Each structure stands twice: as structure tokens, then as C-alpha cells.
Amino acid sequence: MFEFIRKHQRIVLAMLIILVVPSFVFFGVADYQSFVSNDVKLAAIRDTNITQEQFNQSWRARLDQMRMESGANFDVSKVDTPANRQAWLNQLIDTQVLQQEMIDGHFNATDNMVRNAIGSNPQFHENGVYSPQKYNEFLAANGIKDIEYEAYVRQNLAFAHVLEPIAQSVSVPGKTLELLQLAMVQERTVSLKEFEASTFLQDVTVTDEDIKQWYEKNSKTLEVPRYVDVQYIILNQDAALKSVPEVSEADIESYYKSNIGKYTKQERREVNHIQVMIPASADAAAEAEILKKAQDVAAQAKADPAKFSALAKQYSDDVGTKNLDGSLGLLAKGDIPVLDEAIFSLTQPGVTDPVKVGNSYHIIQVVKIDEGAVQPLSAIKNDVLEEIRLQLASEKFAELATGLTQQVNDDRSSLQGVVDSLQLELKTVNGVARDQLLTDKQVSDNAASASADAKYFESPRVREVLFSDEVLKQKLNSGVIEISPSELLVVRVAQEVPATIPALDTVKTEVEAILKNEKALEQAKLAGEEELKMLQENGVATSTGFGPETVISRMMSNQLPQTMLNTIMAAPTDKLPSFVGTTTPNGYVIAQVEKVSEGNPEMKMLFTQFLQPGLESGVALEVAKGVTNVLRANHEVQVFPDAEKVIVGE
User: Fold this and answer.
1) Cα-trace Rg, the chain
2) What is the mean pLDDT of residues 368-377?
3) Which one of 146, 177, 323, 545 is most buried, by most CB atoms within 10 A?
4) Does 365 share its domain with 405?
């Protein structure tokens, strides 16, 4: 619910932060002020250059920052794209333009403004109050000096002075907001009728000529992306176990005897008790009376053990157990040490004489004895052997991990030496692309996607390593990748396979299926449009098959595809019911709009509280972007041809 709010508010706020308050990957303000180099120039702002080296450095820092924020799920292939590199270069240019404007216009921030900005930053607070210790910890963690960070804050504040007054002066007309609110909160009651393409598939036929023509026109869509075949070593418990030497019979017996307690089932007894307290003020005569009472109760219990529960309720001073038959539960030696002697003095179930413990007498009833026993080695030999092997494997893992790390660092030209030295298995898989694992159909055999080790190559972090310059271009072994504390991975590119378009004969079945689906979609659309026309002319009485009513709005879309939602919300409502249709990925859908309401107060409140500020920020953002574009022209921004090469990743 309210997906629109969650999605669009994040987008608007993120864009506003990027443009109105320029974002820095912090590597020293001086680096932003020294964009002068003999390196390849990507852009120039008057006499200041942004070079390829500086772009690469800042972009890597940004990726590292996102990697830290996202953790193991960070997929660099989804982020390091031409569109994002273009946006980053634009941001660097805009930052430099705004910095130059800041200098030309003598924008500055006072020491007091800097102190207030740092003091109001929540990450430096403890219990809601500024903490110098938190601030110093932040500086130490990032390896920066306080004077550097203060300069960074001062520059950000000065930047804000360039655009912030313009952004804050922007307002959206009240009438516009009113109309937007009406459009967003309006609710429509609809029912849907679906024409699924799958129902038309059986009537679809395609010819070889159809397949050939489709392939000639669309073969690029079947392209198998560039991928690598991979050699790799996994060091985990299984690998360590293979290196464990054979365990002798003598070692098994010795381990069994040394750990006999692990294989001994301890005797346990189900125990009830009656506790008779001795008051602190009792003299010898009074205590004798209490003992006599306890002995009488014990005698009754011995005479008829079935009465123990009733006797506990009547005589026990232990309020925690008297209404639970006096139960202490199933006890082993040591569970209640002061009662051990009494509990384990009986050789069979029964009742003891009163036993004095501290300031009370206890009458013990042993209800059941669960005898202890030692499991014979012959019955558990395999389990003992497995325990020994696992312990040896743990020690061996530590030894192999040290050797693996050392040897991989010493020689990165091959994995064979590591395999030979440490007696580990060299494995191979095929079809690891930068952003996916290819299927066995795409790579013929030994596909990583079908491997028992697929989980390792599904990790974005592992694929990032495989497509790094060192591993892919320089053909070096990777370093040791810690998948988990007990799983280490080293990878090497065995072969890089360029992107290819498969021959028609290898994908003919796939093309035929695509063509059939396309034709089925066309038939579903035709059938839907034909019925839509009839409904629009004659009304609902001539048609059946509509689903149950549901209420939708732009703020509560019920997971409808965006095109369908837009079509329904744009449907005419002067005469109801009205009918509209839209194509979907699975066919065609007709929507019957049955009722329209102007939204409830809760929706209007949500619009005012959440969406309206975002819309106003969006307008401010567009104005700020326009001002920045004007400033770009004023500061003679040039973008050189080499920038395009960097953006596309050449």
C-alpha cells in the first residue's frame, strides 16, 4: 500500500540532495580544488580541468562507499553503468561550477555556522546531545583531520548558499496542488476482464519463414553476453576433510575413553517433595514437634504413595510446588546438590524419611528412575570417528588457509602450484557473466548456474572480482575471497568469451516459442479490443467474465501495472459504467469503471504530509537544475570527446 509515496518520495529527495546540496565522496577538499593535471581531460570549467584520473578516483571512491552501505548484496554491474557514470561526471562538473560561482560571488560560511552544522549532525550525538568523542571517532575511522572536515563542511555550507535561496523561493500554486491532490486521491471502483495470451497459444502456428524473418530482424535480442570460464579453488570443511589422514583404531578408542562423559547417559529421577519449615524463633522443643510432624507426614506418604499430592497441598510450605504435586521435575546429580544424598539414596521408587536442609525438613518422593548408561564404542564408532575427523579438519583448515593466502599472494600466475602444494581440488565452471550466470543452453556444458557451487558465483562480490582489471585483463589469480569464516575462494579466468549471437539452428526452438507468444498476444489484444468496442457501444449487459470489484487510486495502486493504472485513472467518468482496455505483458485487460469517489480524508492527509513536500521539492529541483545550466554557460564548461569513452567504459 502507498507504494507511490515510498517510491517517489525517495527519488525526489535523492535528486534534491544530489543537486541542491552537492554530494561529496570525501577524499579531502584539496582534491576538489586541484583539478589540474596533465592527464586526459574529460571536461574543463574555465581554466580548471576534470581529468580521467580524477574521475576514476572519485568514481571508485563512490562505488566503495555504496559497497560499504549495501554489504554483500552490492552488485557493481548494476551500478557501474554508462548512465550512472554520465550522472557522476555531470555532478563533478556541477560541483566545480558551483565552487567557482561560490568563489566569484564570495559566498562563505562563518566559523559559528560550521560549529552549528557539526554540532547538529545526528551521527555525532549521544543520547540526543553532541558528543566530542563521537566526532573524534568519526574522524579517526575516516582517517581525516578535524581541520580538513571543517573545511569540507564550510564548503558544503557555502555551496548551499549558491542554490538554496533560489530553491527555497520556489512555490507551487495552490490551485495546482489542489488539482494534483484530486488526481492522486481519487478512488475508482473497477472490475477487470483478462484475455490471457496463453489461451490463444494452441491456435497459433508459425512457419520456418516466419522464424527466419524474426531472427533476421531480432537476433540481437538473443545475444549471449560476454562471459568468462573460471578456474577456482574452494577451501571449506569438505576440502579440509579430504586432507585429514586416516584415523587408527587406537586413536578412536583413545578419544572415546578420554571423552567417555559425552557418551554416558546420566541417571535422572522424577522427584516430588514436601517442605516443612522450621521457624527462626523455634527452640529445641518446638523443632522436635516439627520433626515429629514431618515424620508423621512421611509415614502417611510411605503407607500410600498415591496420597503424596494431597499431602503436599496440605502440609508443604513450598508455595512454588505445593499445588503441582510437590514436583521438582526430572533431576540428575548436581541439579539440587543439597538434596542429592536423599534423592539418590533410594534404590527404587519410594519415599524418604524427613531430611533436614537448612531451616526446613524435606520429604522426598522418587516417582520414577531413568537409569543412566554408557553407550558402548561398538554402537557409536562411526559417530566418534566423524567427531575426530571434524576436529582434525578444523585444525587442517587453519593450516590450509594460511598456506592458501601465502601462496596465492606469492604467485598469482597460476592456480596449479597451489593445488599441487596444498592438495586441493582445482575446479572449473563456465558461463559467468558480469551480471548473471548463463544457462547450460547458452554455454553448452559445465554451466556455473547448474553447478553445486553456483551460490559462490551468484555473489555480486565474486563476479566483481572476476571482471576486475587484475583478474580479467592481466590474467592474474584473485586474492583469497572470504565467503564466510569457514569458506575461502580463489578464482582465475580460464577464458574470456566475447558476446555472440547464436546461429539460428541453435535457437530455432526458442525463436519459435517467442513468435508463438507474440502472435498469441496479438490475438488476445484483438479479441480484447473487439469486446471493448462492443461494451463501449452496448454496455455491460452483453458481456460476462469480469472479476470482483476492487478500489484503486494512484496512491493505492494494488500492484497494477503502471500503464493499466494510468489507463483506468484516465477513463471518462461522465457516464458510468465506462470501459477502457490496455495491453499487458500477458495479454489484454478490459477495466469496467463502476464508481468514482473523491478520496477519503486519510488519503488527502497523506498527500499533504508526504507527497506535497516532495512535489514542491521537485519543482525546486528543476529550477535549481535550470540555474545550474545557466551557470555552466557562464563558466564556459566544455566536455571533451574522451569523456564519452570513459562513460561507456572503454
Assistant:
1) 39
2) 87
3) 177
4) no
**CA dist., res. 316 & res. 361, Å (int):** 10
Q: In the chain, how many domains are there?
A: 4
Q: Which of 50-54, 72-76, 247-251 has the lowest mean pLDDT?
A: 72-76
Is the pLDDT confidence value at 8 over 90?
Answer: no
**Residue 254 within a domain:** no
Report how far residue 355's alpha carbon sits from residue 490's, in angstroms, rounded to the nearest whole number: 68
Which candidate, 558, 583, 582, 587, places its Cα nearest to that of 568? 582
* Residue with cell string 516430588: 272
Q: What is the pLDDT of residue 542?
A: 54
Based on the domain organization, do 50 and 162 belong to the same domain?
Answer: yes
Higher-pLDDT residue of 520 and 540 is 520
Instruction: Evaluate whether residue 181 is within a structural domain.
Output: no
Q: Is 154 helix (H, G, I), strand (E, B) or coil?
A: helix
Q: Are residues 491 and 509 in the same domain?
A: no
Give the three cell numbers for residue 483: 565467503
State the amino acid at position 32 in one-letter form: Y
Q: Which residues of 200-220 are buried (b: 16+ CB within 10 A; e: fewer)?
A: bbeebebeeebbeebbeeeee
- Cell numbers for 114, please give them: 560550521
39 and 165 together in one domain: yes
Task: Give yes or no for a contact between 156 and 24, defined as CB atoms under 8 angstroms apart.
Answer: yes
| Residues 164 and 42 reside in one and the same domain | yes
Q: CATH number of the domain at 358, please.
A: 3.10.50.40
Query: Of 529, 501, 615, 489, whose CA–CA distance to 174 is shortest?
Result: 615
Answer with the one of 318, 353, 371 that is the final residue of a domain: 371
Mapped onto helix, strand or coil, the DSSP state of residue 270 is: strand
- Domain boundary among the residues 463, 480, 497 is at 497
Distance CA 27, CA 458 (A): 32
Distance CA(471)–CA(478), nearest Å, equals 6
**Tens of pLDDT, residues 168-218:** 777 888 888 888 888 888 899 999 999 999 999 999 999 999 999 999 999
In this structure, the answer to whether residues 144 and 89 fall within a common structural domain is yes
Residue for cell digits 555525532? Answer: 124
Residue 240 and residue 216 in one domain: no
CA distance 328 to 336: 10
- 380, part of any domain: no
CA distances from 358 to 272, 365, 643 (A): 18, 19, 88
Q: What is the phi-psi region of residue 145: left when phi exceeds 0, alpha when psi lies from -120 to 50, beta otherwise?
A: beta
Phi and psi at residue 129, to the nearest 5° = -125, 140
Distant-in-sequence, close-in-space partners of 398: CB < 8 Å, separation ≥ 6: none
Q: Within this chain, do residues 532 and 560 fall inside the same structural domain, yes or no?
A: yes
Instruction: Give residue 450's pLDDT band: very low, low, confident or very high (50, 70, 90).
Output: very high
Q: Let me know if residue 518 belongs to a domain.
A: yes
Q: Which of 78-92, 358-372, 480-494, 616-630 has the lowest mean pLDDT?
A: 616-630
Residue 242, domain extent = 227-246+399-497
Would you call 58 exposed, middle or buried from its count of C-beta atoms within 10 A (0-12, 13-18, 19+)? buried
